[in-house]
Amino acid sequence: MATDPGLATDPRPTLAVWKFASCDGCQLTLLDCEDELLGLTERVRIDHFLEMTPVEGAGGERARPDGRGPYDLSLVEGSITTAEDAERIQHIRRVSRYLVTIGACATAGGIQALRNFAEVDEFLAAVYAQPEYISTLETSTPISAHVPVDFELRGCPIDRRQLLEVITAHLAGRKPRIPSHSVCFECKRRGTTCITVAHGTPCLGPVTHAGCGAICPAYGRGCYGCFGPTSRPNLRSMVAQLRHDGMSERDIQRVFRTFNAASPEYAPVPDLVAEEQDSPRDTTEARPERPA
Amino acid sequence: MNHGGTRVLRLDALARVEGEAALHLRVDGGTVVETRLRIYEPPRFFEAFLTGRAHTEPPDITARICGICPVAYQMSACQAIENACGVTVDGPLAELRRLLYCGEWIESHTLHIYLLHAPDFLGHADVVGLARDQRAAVERGLRLKQAGNAIIEQLGGRPIHPVNVRVGGFYRTPTPQELRPLAERLRQAREDALETVRWVAAFDFPDTVCDHDLLALRDPGRYAIDSGTPAVMAAHGGSPALREFTLSDFEQRVQEGQVPYSTALTATLDGRRFLTGPLARYAINGRWLHPVAAEAARAAGLGDPAGGAICDNPFRSIVVRAVEVVHAVEEALRIIDGYEQPLRPAVQVPPRKAVGAGATEAPRGLLYHRYVLAEDGTLTEARIVPPTAQNQTAIEEDVRRAVQARLNRVGPAADDEELTHLCERAIRNHDPCISCAAHFLDLTVERR
Ligand code: SF4
Ligand code: SF4
């Protein structure tokens, strides 16, 4: 098999890709870099990436879920939802020089974090015939709740251009150039007419982290926040604007409680919605936030 | 292998499959007595999360079950809800959906063929090793995969979890001019796809047959992708006639069960082991392959699909996938060539109190959804049966057979490494999508 004789002296930095509770979409983004994939594998040695390769680089022994490392860069997908995974991430941190989370699951707990808001009793009532076969934690938490993280790449899924920037930057020892402004700025750059202004379409663009290139508005759809919150979102204005654009209380709650449900920035939403319902606000306040 | 001894083989991490699983094999006196595909992917509670959501939400939410076949989830979800609401989406909107689905077939099948499966046949650990040997072939694969992704990106906004799909249709439909560059790209892709069939047909295939019952959608007149009626072809020795059943009977026929060693459900069809996916589709729908794809299949040694030839060697599933890619490319070209932009991007789907089911052919096999809606469209129940859960028992049986056949062979005994490799290959034949399988509702809460 592919035991590379030159491995011992291989000067390439090493890359590992890890998976926790996730859909695999973010790690697949790496394989979706069709134009760059082969070039990348010439510049970095992919030492642990189960979706792509069964062999640990050093020595060629078979991959185990707890690869030994060390790795220069670990990309971590998925959230922590089991006791074993809470242990496994500690190991991964120990063997990784840089640890970067990729995607909403790893960065914010992902859609799995919906369980954090569920009544435990409700879930128990839904228990299946043989629940003893299954063990899981009652929360889904981001990687940063368990170990220090060097960089968090947002998105559900992440954007492949941003992924390449993050990999290149870490390998060059510099900070990734990932802007933290809102989706609105990307709409302007793309030349998309604001769908809220033009059509009154509810859109989370003003409070959503840039990165996707403002896809949804270009397709006539309001942003639903899959990249998670900007650093200091003006939620008060956002909630007022969403209501003005026709969203019900329930719709507003739900749109924030989806792929980044457990983002701390979203925590005030239920209160704001309740408040907003009592005293409708002047919606002209709603404006995209300014860059920091 | 010593006759009389007991040997346990553990494969802790399956590589080149999507999601995480392990294999446990027990051999006793030269006989394989146990094969367990253990899926240790953490359970994900999608059906629970769907309950209480609006009827417009399942396409986006269920897409997140699987990053490799999000379109399949979106399409089955849309169908189930439209079915509940008594709405049919047809004409150019249905054609666009099919086009999107063709993009996913091209992308997902090509990913499997080149990046996950071909290294097995060519003695490489992975695609990086393969590229060192056959750079041009790997580049062809990446180009073909990119053509599939380009369709999804154009129609859906991005290749993973497309944003442009909604219940009733799309948020925005493309103009014919916007689709034109895709057609150019697909004409190149047709060459790459045909070359792929020739490439994989020349691989070396272990001689083996599987005798699982086969389940696929049947859509008379065309090779089922985005619609059809479930049809079963009994295994050899059974009746050759197809048995069809309605989607509303699906859960009576396909029954899921739990096994203690896995976080995924397993399933039986009328109480028997069965297989869904490319081999099943090819057996049930082969005669409706596009002529170019059918010809490629014949040339590749798969027999004449129009004359009812089937493929029952799971190792040859890579050839069937390649043929399906040709078909998907042809189908995509046909749709683009005949496309006229519909007047509206979506039809209205007013909610009502009802139950609806939908099924489509995900790249790995039949994907079934059922939703119960309240009057205002709130989901009160959701049920999803993904292909890998259905295939799990058939995969275990294939592993058992492959290892047993090797043990029965005279000559030098098989060492653990050889058996491990054989097991991995038998599993990868089915392209199991393991994160899809571990999505079920059960939960034990562990308090710490
Ligand atoms: S963030 Fe989204 S795309 Fe990425 S693994 Fe999680 S669910 Fe999948
Ligand atoms: S939901 Fe928002 S962040 Fe996500 S793709 Fe759409 S516009 Fe971009």
> How many H/I helices of chain B?
14
Specify the helix fraction band of chain A. Answer: 25-40%
Radius of gyration of chain A, taken over Cα atoms and rounded to an integer in Å: 21 Å
The coarse overall form of chain A would be globular
- Give the cofactors and ligands: iron/sulfur cluster
Biggest sheet descriptor of chain B? 4 strands, mixed
Structural class by helix and strand composition of chain A: alpha/beta
Largest sheet of chain A: 5 strands, parallel
The number of strands of chain A is 6
- Unreliable runs of chain A: 1-6, 55-64, 127-133, 281-292
Brief account:
With 292 residues, chain A is of the alpha/beta class. Helix content of chain A is 34%, strand content 10%.
How is this structure best described in words?
- The complex is a heterodimer of chains A (292) and B (448).
- With 292 residues, chain A is α/β, with parallel strands linked by helices.
- Chain A has 12 helices and 6 strands.
- Chain A has a 5-stranded parallel sheet, sandwiched between helices.
- In chain A, helix 10 (235-244) crosses helix 12 (269-278) and helix 11 (249-256) runs antiparallel to helix 12 (269-278).
- The longest helix of chain A has 13 residues, at 160-172.
- Chain A is globular.
- Chain A starts with 13 loop residues before the first strand and ends in a 14-residue tail after the last helix.
- Mean pLDDT of chain A is 85; it is low at 1-6, 55-64, 127-133 and 281-292.
- With 448 residues, chain B is of the alpha+beta class.
- Chain B has helices spanning 46-50, 58-63, 70-85, 91-122, 127-133, 135-156, 176-201, 250-253, 278-285, 291-299, 317-337, 387-408, 416-428, 434-437, and strands at residues 6-11, 21-28, 31-39, 165-166, 169-170, 213-218, 229-233, 243-244, 254-258, 265-269, 274-276, 354-362, 365-373, 379-385, 445-446.
- In chain B, the strands form 5 sheets. Chain B has a 4-stranded mixed sheet with strand order 8-7-6-11. A 3-stranded antiparallel sheet of chain B has the order 1-2-3, covered by helices on one side. A 3-stranded antiparallel sheet of chain B has the order 12-13-14.
- In chain B, helix 6 (135-156) runs antiparallel to helix 7 (176-201).
- The longest helix of chain B is centred in the N-terminal third of the chain and has 32 residues, at 91-122.
- At the A-B interface, helix 1, helix 2, helix 5, strand 5 and helix 9 of A face helix 4, helix 5, helix 6 and strand 15 of B.
- The structure holds iron/sulfur cluster (2 copies).
- The site of one iron/sulfur cluster has 11 residues of chain A, from helix 9.
